[in-house]
């Protein structure tokens, strides 16, 4: 409902000005799916992610086994030995969480790798869209792959294939 109200307000406020403007849209998902370098980068990121995940799962299983062994042997251990074993388990858990953050955190290895592989491709797409907007005198180019809801789109205003051509790819 909010989207409809916002769309109505947008159309009402800018309706008279909008009549003189040119609008178009692209589908970035479609564009990126048709760029081989993007698919290769995604595959590489998936492989890295699986490798990291496997390493973390192995470490987690080791911690779980240590904890189970500790529980089974706790009645036989002195207080000093219990404390030492607990400290080792807690230390391993901290290492696990640090490694998890290092791999998958906001500034983790996977994020940095994604920035290095995907961002240049996205920048190329953005630059191609910008060139098309300038060449075609478009006021606005929407992305229908994003969260913007478009109930109807006329294919004649879809510039997705032109973006691919600008980047040197054929549909």
TrEMBL record:
GO terms for biological process: protein stabilization. Residues 1-20 form the signal peptide. It comes from the Bacteria. Pfam families: OmpH. The keyword Isomerase does not apply. GO terms for molecular function: unfolded protein binding. One of its GO terms (cellular component) is cytosol. Residues 38-87 form a coiled coil. InterPro entries: Chaperone_Skp (IPR005632), Skp_dom_sf (IPR024930). Keywords: Coiled coil, Signal. Belongs to the Skp family. PANTHER family: CHAPERONE PROTEIN SKP (PTHR35089). This is Uncharacterized protein. It comes from Sunxiuqinia dokdonensis.
């Amino acid at each position: 409902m909010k989207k409809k109200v916002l769309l109505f307000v947008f159309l009402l406020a800018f309706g008279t000005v909008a009549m003189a403007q040119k609008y178009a849209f692209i589908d970035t998902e479609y564009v990126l799916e048709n760029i081989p370098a993007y698919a290769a980068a995604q595959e590489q990121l998936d492989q890295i992610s699986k490798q990291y995940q496997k390493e973390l799962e192995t470490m987690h299983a080791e911690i779980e086994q240590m904890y189970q062994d500790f529980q089974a042997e706790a009645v036989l251990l002195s207080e000093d030995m219990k404390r030492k074993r607990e400290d080792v388990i807690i230390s391993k858990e901290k290492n696990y969480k640090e490694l998890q953050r290092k791999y998958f955190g906001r500034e983790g290895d996977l994020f940095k790798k994604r920035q290095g592989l995907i961002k240049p491709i996205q920048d190329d797409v953005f630059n191609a869209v910008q060139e098309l907007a300038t060449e075609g005198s478009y006021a606005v180019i929407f992305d229908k792959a994003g969260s913007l809801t478009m109930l109807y789109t006329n294919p004649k205003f879809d510039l997705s294939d032109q973006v691919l051509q600008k980047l040197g790819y054929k549909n």
